[in-house]
């Protein structure tokens, strides 16, 4: 580049110069040159301006003397003398008072011209709810928290208000509770705030305070008083009016109310039941679950949804269309459909809708493997999909998030910001709510979801879908549309297989055809085929005991025969369900002679296998399990259970879905979520071990597994085969299993400490609210009860007042005594009838004293006793007045017979009636019996009930019996001797003896009452009775609505006691530091928190602490004794002693679990394995240290990583940064190689 010559500066040129500063490319413009001097040079020193430096002295002082980190720790006295002299700190008191600026209380709003839209003016608008934040409010109006907490939330946040739990209304807030009636602002002030030791001193001070012009409080209280006075006046007037109203037609109104009829046999009086019919039937029972009819085709689907959010290449089924119509209306749905019916369509449409609406969807599944699979499926369909599981977090900002239910629960408790944008939550495999361990999580999530979120529940067919949806609808106060499919898209045929050699390999018998008929013919054919083979042997040697267990070689021959047969008929792929992991492996290994794949398939399998495992480290590729599986896979055989390495499981699933695995030996977990249908399903046996013992498969389990047979669009029917290896299963067992109803959805709700602490953190949410809303309490229909309660209260207030003066002063005690007498009497009678001797006494011919609406202390004789044990009736001939045979006479309103034992003697001629008596009508069993001819009496009586024989004289048998009874009554007008339950009937149980004594005492006390002699007694007694029956029903309902009737309430109080004694919460229920730590931890929260606070983990090295914590995630038993370092052994002792202490404390507080059971949950079988793994030992060597299978080890270490994360969070809360970083190190040490290989589905 040639040089440019700039002409010298002339008089017209501006005095400008550029100065280049150093080599950094910065220039400075110099505009005011010194006059007379030439302009400065175009550049400075070659490397910028010379550096300046602090003097060494200042630097040393700054670094070593003024920096508090350098101060000596031990010699503090010396330090405090020296330090202030050196530093000369400026005192800045204000720095201690940091106050975040308060939120703006107002904003600007624009006023526009309505026609032109021109800006006219700005006005100031007051903003509401500016002080709300995630720390003090449940409202969606609150400010968003910091971005770092937006996904998972924070454990100091409040959750958003759960749907269906209303915030308090204005009326409820203004209504004073009993506690805050009248506060005297001078004398009654509380001095000590809760939680503090000392408080304020309000004694009179010397200084005179200038009196304020207006005292607001006094003004307010005056206002309150005046309104209160007005109210009182109004109420008084109302009362007076009521009294006037009731004074006038008093007697008539009582007749109309029908209280007179309130006889002992009817518990509520007619009057109270009358207001009911006024309501419309719809109002009475508001149904939340709405079954959707899918029998008729959905004609106008495309008219109603002209441009759907998502289109499929196939025509939808009716149930899918109905579900989509409901989703478009933003309703919640419960889809209970058979396996492979296409429930995913509903989920896909919801995701598409939320992408269209720019909202978010959360898809939760019970199993991590299922989450990974769904992630891959949805990722290919929708692109914008994220995954959150315990150890993986992929694109969490996506509109569709797939996660496990536990993570959604912690997001809800921690007030995650994701919940704001949430439109749908899709729960897949909801029947998992039956899981004893984790079912409670589903219920918690369903209860905690806010109002704006709609719910989609997908489940296998369950019998009580409606009841379950009704519960969700009621707690969420919204309709749930229930859609269930009638039949499977691909019908199943169930067979029995008895073959065990090449000769007999075709012995397959159809047992249940595609239309659902159970064919006994097939069953007997199978039995015969099996018998024919065993009989020759049995004839020669006598029968051997046919045990259920078969030897390995027998098994092998059965499998070889069956698989030959199936591959000839092209019935592969086959899933063989085997209920033990060892059995799966053995069966697969025994098939080394089988080869089910072509050479092209072998090549495909090989390349896929190599490609998938290419991300493993060299040593890990040579693991025995991987080598074994490679050989099996090449021949088209595979194994799938929890002991298989996760990456191998995924390889097998992918090969299976491509149709390259021909035979898959799997355990039940394969049927749980993995959506991989086959052509044939084989059951190795129909018994499984469920953790306690062996049992037959339940219908639900059988259907879930058998449902894997039959691929939609590929097979006309699916084949299910049950192997009969030892003998043919019992027909009754098979029938129950195939034709039985699947398991009901049942609540597994239980209280966990995490749940209690999470809800106690938030004042507005109460644990009892959560318990009330659980599915286990779904029978509590609180709204119905509330309605009835208000009705009863009205009824009560409208009843006329009681007259309890003079003679009637002891009317109420009399009523209570009489009621107690009645109850005691009834319970005694029940005891008599349930006893053998009592029934003997109550036989034909026994004379009774009868009391009911029609008869008062009348004698009767038993003619017939019904055989029905529940509502036993006694057909009895009773004497009565002539003309009162049908009981038209006045019913005795009070219970006169309770104190009056005088027998009924007719005034005029004596007549009779035959009635069926209930137990409560019989007030005494006498010692007398009569000889009667029951059949004749009954026939004669029935004949004379017909109109044309009405006036015939009674037959001989009846007249004799009636005369006998009348004679008895006249002979003993004061009462006949009765059978005593204790002495005569020999009933010696405590209840009966006590009851008898109580009865005598009560009967004696009745004589002392004066109210009986009052002329208006019966009328007043009827009133008391009417009033009391309403009151009793009201009390019953109030109890049902109250928290006291919750089944889990006692356990809740026990758990609170445990938390208080461990100081997780204080006496007032406020969550303390320990409680805050425990909130962070999802399982075994008490033990982990105690270990943290007792510093058990601090002395250990990172790998030792990881090894120690493995006891929280490992659940199996192991036979291998681990070799441990001495410090680990000590720590294990510490852990066990802490666990024992917690267990014993729980026991003392009344929780039924014993200390041994509590300690027994923690198993230390994997401590050595984890210790070696964290120290870097390769996986192949670790697998040799234990008898636990590789897949289980991997799963445990993965879950251990989640525990370490939780402990790290907890350490951060406590402020123990050393422990936090140690957990970080431990976490890094175990996160390596094959254990943390990313899932094939997520890449």
UniProtKB/TrEMBL annotation:
Membrane-crossing ranges are none
List the InterPro entries: Beta-barrel_MTR4 (IPR025696), DEAD/DEAH_box_helicase_dom (IPR011545), Helicase_ATP-bd (IPR014001), Helicase_C-like (IPR001650), MTR4-like_stalk (IPR048392), P-loop_NTPase (IPR027417), RNA-DNA_Helicase (IPR050699), SKI2-like (IPR016438)
GO cellular component, alphabetical, reads: Ski complex
Catalysis performed (reactions): ATP + H2O = ADP + phosphate + H(+)
Query: What are the BP-aspect GO terms?
Result: nuclear-transcribed mRNA catabolic process, 3'-5' exonucleolytic nonsense-mediated decay
UniProt GO MF annotations: ATP binding; hydrolase activity; RNA binding; RNA helicase activity
Q: Where is the composition biased (Acidic residues)?
A: 225-236
Q: Helicase ATP-binding domain spans which residues?
A: 324-480
Is Hydrolase a UniProt keyword of this protein? Answer: yes
Q: Which residues form the Helicase C-terminal domain?
A: 595-760
Q: Which UniProt keywords apply?
A: ATP-binding, Cytoplasm, Helicase, Hydrolase, Nucleotide-binding, RNA-binding
Q: Which cellular compartments is it found in?
A: Cytoplasm
Is RNA-binding among this UniProt entry's keywords? yes
Write out the ranges of the annotated region (Disordered).
Answer: 137-158, 225-289
UniProt-listed PANTHER family = ATP-DEPENDENT RNA AND DNA HELICASE, ATP-DEPENDENT RNA HELICASE SUPV3L1, MITOCHONDRIAL-RELATED
Q: What is the designated name of this protein?
A: SKI2 subunit of superkiller complex
Q: What species does this protein belong to? A: Oryzias melastigma
């Amino acid at each position: 580049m040639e040089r440019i010559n700039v002409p010298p500066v002339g008089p017209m040129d501006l005095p400008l110069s550029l100065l280049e500063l150093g080599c950094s490319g910065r220039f400075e413009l110099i505009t005011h040159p010194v006059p007379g001097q030439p302009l400065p040079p175009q550049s400075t020193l070659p490397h910028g301006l010379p550096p300046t430096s602090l003097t060494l002295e200042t630097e040393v002082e700054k670094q070593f003397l003024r920096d508090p980190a350098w101060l000596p720790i031990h010699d503090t006295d010396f330090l405090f003398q020296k330090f202030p002299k050196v530093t000369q700190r400026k005192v800045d008191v204000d720095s201690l008072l940091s106050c975040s600026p308060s939120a703006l209380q107002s904003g600007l709003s624009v006023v526009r011209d309505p026609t032109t839209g021109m800006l006219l003016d700005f006005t100031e608008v007051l903003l509401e709810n500016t002080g709300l934040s995630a720390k003090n409010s449940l409202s969606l109006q609150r400010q968003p928290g910091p971005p770092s907490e937006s996904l998972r939330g924070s454990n100091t946040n409040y959750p958003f208000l759960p749907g269906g739990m209303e915030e308090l209304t204005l009326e409820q807030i203004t209504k004073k509770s009993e506690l805050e009636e009248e506060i005297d602002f001078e004398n009654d002030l509380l001095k000590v705030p809760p939680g503090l030791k000392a408080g304020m001193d309000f004694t009179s001070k010397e200084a005179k305070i200038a009196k304020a012009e207006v005292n607001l409080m006094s003004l307010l209280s005056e206002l309150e008083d005046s309104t209160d006075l007005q109210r009182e006046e109004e109420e008084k007037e109302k009362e007076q009016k009521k009294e006037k109203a009731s004074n006038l037609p008093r007697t008539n109104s009582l007749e109309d109310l029908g209280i007179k009829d309130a006889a002992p046999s009817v518990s509520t009086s007619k009057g109270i039941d009358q207001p009911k019919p006024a309501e419309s039937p719809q109002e009475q029972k508001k149904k939340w679950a709405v079954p959707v009819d899918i029998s008729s085709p959905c004609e106008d689907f495309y008219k109603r949804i002209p441009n759907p959010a998502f289109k499929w290449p196939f025509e939808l089924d009716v149930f899918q269309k109905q579900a989509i119509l409901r989703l478009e209306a933003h309703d919640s749905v419960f889809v209970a459909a058979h396996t492979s019916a296409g429930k995913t369509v509903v989920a896909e449409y919801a995701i598409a809708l939320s992408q269209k609406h720019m909202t978010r969807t959360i898809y939760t599944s019970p199993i991590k493997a299922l989450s990974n699979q769904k992630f891959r499926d949805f990722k290919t369909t929708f692109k914008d999909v994220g995954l959150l599981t315990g150890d993986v977090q992929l694109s969490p900002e996506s509109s569709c998030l797939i996660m496990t239910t536990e993570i959604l629960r912690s997001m809800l408790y921690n007030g995650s910001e994701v919940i704001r944008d949430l439109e749908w939550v899709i729960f897949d495999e909801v029947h998992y709510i039956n899981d004893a361990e984790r079912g409670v999580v589903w219920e918690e999530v369903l209860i905690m979801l806010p109002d704006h979120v709609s719910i989609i529940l997908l489940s296998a067919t369950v019998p009580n879908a409606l009841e379950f949806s009704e519960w969700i609808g009621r707690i969420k106060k919204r309709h749930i549309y229930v859609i269930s499919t009638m039949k499977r898209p691909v019908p199943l045929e169930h067979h029995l297989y008895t073959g065990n050699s090449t000769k007999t390999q075709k012995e397959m018998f159809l047992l249940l055809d595609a239309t659902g008929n159970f064919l006994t013919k097939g069953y007997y054919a199978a039995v015969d085929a099996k018998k024919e083979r065993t009989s020759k042997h049995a004839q020669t040697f006598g029968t051997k005991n046919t045990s259920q267990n078969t030897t390995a070689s027998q098994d092998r021959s059965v499998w070889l025969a069956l698989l030959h047969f199936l591959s000839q008929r092209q019935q592969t792929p086959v899933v063989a369900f085997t209920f033990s992991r060892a059995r799966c492996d053995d069966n697969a290994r025994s098939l080394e002679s089988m080869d089910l794949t072509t050479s092209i398939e072998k090549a495909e399998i090989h390349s896929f296998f190599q490609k998938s495992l290419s991300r493993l480290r060299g040593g890990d590729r040579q693991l025995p399990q991987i080598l074994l599986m490679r050989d099996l896979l090449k021949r088209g055989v595979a194994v799938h259970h929890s002991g298989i390495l996760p990456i191998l499981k995924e390889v097998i699933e992918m090969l299976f879905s491509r149709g390259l695995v021909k035979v898959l030996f799997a355990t039940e977990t394969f049927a749980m979520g993995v959506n991989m249908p086959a052509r044939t399903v084989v059951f190795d046996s129909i018994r499984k071990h469920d953790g306690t013992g062996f049992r037959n498969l339940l219908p639900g389990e059988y259907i879930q597994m058998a449902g894997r047979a039959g691929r939609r669009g590929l097979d006309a029917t699916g084949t299910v085969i049950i192997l009969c290896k030892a003998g043919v299963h019992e027909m009754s067992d098979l029938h129950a299993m195939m034709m039985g109803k699947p398991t009901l959805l049942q609540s597994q709700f239980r209280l966990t400490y995490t749940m209690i602490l999470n809800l106690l953190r938030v004042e507005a949410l109460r644990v009892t609210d959560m318990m009330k809303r659980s599915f286990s309490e779904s029978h509590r229909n609180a709204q119905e009860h509330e309605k009835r309660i208000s009705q009863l209260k009205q009824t009560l207030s409208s009843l006329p007042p009681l007259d309890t003066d003079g003679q009637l002063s002891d009317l109420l005690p009399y009523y209570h005594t009489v009621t107690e007498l009645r109850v005691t009497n009834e319970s005694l009678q029940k005891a008599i009838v349930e006893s053998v001797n009592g029934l003997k006494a109550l036989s034909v011919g026994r004379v009774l004293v009868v009391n009911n609406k029609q008869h008062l202390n009348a004698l009767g004789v038993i003619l017939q006793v019904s055989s029905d044990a529940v509502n036993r009736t006694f057909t009895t001939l009773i004497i009565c007045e002539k003309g009162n045979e049908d009981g038209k006479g006045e019913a005795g309103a009070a219970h006169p017979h309770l104190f009056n034992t005088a027998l009924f003697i007719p005034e005029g001629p004596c007549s009779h009636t035959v009635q069926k008596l209930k137990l409560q009508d019989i007030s005494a069993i006498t010692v007398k019996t009569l000889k009667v001819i029951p059949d004749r009496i009954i026939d004669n009586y029935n004949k004379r009930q017909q109109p044309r024989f009405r006036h015939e004289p009674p037959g001989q048998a009846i007249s004799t019996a009636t005369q006998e009874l009348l004679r008895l009554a006249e002979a003993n007008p004061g009462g006949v001797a009765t059978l005593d339950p204790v002495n005569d009937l020999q009933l010696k149980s405590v209840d009966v003896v006590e009851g008898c004594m109580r009865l005598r005492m009560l009967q004696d006390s009745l004589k002392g009452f004066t109210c009986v002699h009052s002329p208006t007694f019966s009328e007043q007694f009827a009133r008391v009775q009417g009033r009391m029956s309403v009151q009793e029903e009201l009390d019953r309902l109030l109890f049902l609505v109250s928290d006291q009737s919750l089944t889990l309430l006692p356990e809740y109080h026990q758990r609170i006691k445990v938390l208080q004694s461990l100081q997780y919460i204080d006496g007032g229920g406020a969550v303390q530091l320990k409680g805050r730590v425990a909130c962070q931890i999802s399982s075994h929260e008490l033990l982990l928190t105690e270990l943290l606070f007792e510093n058990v983990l601090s002395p250990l090295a990172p790998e030792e602490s990881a090894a120690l914590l493995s006891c929280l995630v490992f659940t199996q038993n192991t036979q291998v004794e681990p070799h441990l370092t001495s410090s680990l052994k000590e720590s294990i002792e510490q852990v066990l002693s802490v666990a024992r202490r917690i267990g014993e404390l729980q026991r003392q507080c009344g929780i039924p679990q014993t200390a041994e059971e509590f300690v027994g949950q923690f198993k230390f079988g994997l401590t050595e394995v984890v210790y070696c793994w964290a120290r870097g030992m390769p996986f192949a060597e670790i697998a040799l240290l234990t008898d636990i299978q590789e897949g289980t080890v991997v799963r445990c270490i993965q879950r251990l990583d989640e525990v370490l994360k939780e402990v790290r969070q907890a350490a951060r809360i406590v402020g123990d940064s050393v422990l936090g970083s140690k957990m970080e190190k431990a976490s890094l040490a175990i996160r390596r190689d094959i254990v943390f290989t990313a899932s094939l589905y997520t890449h």
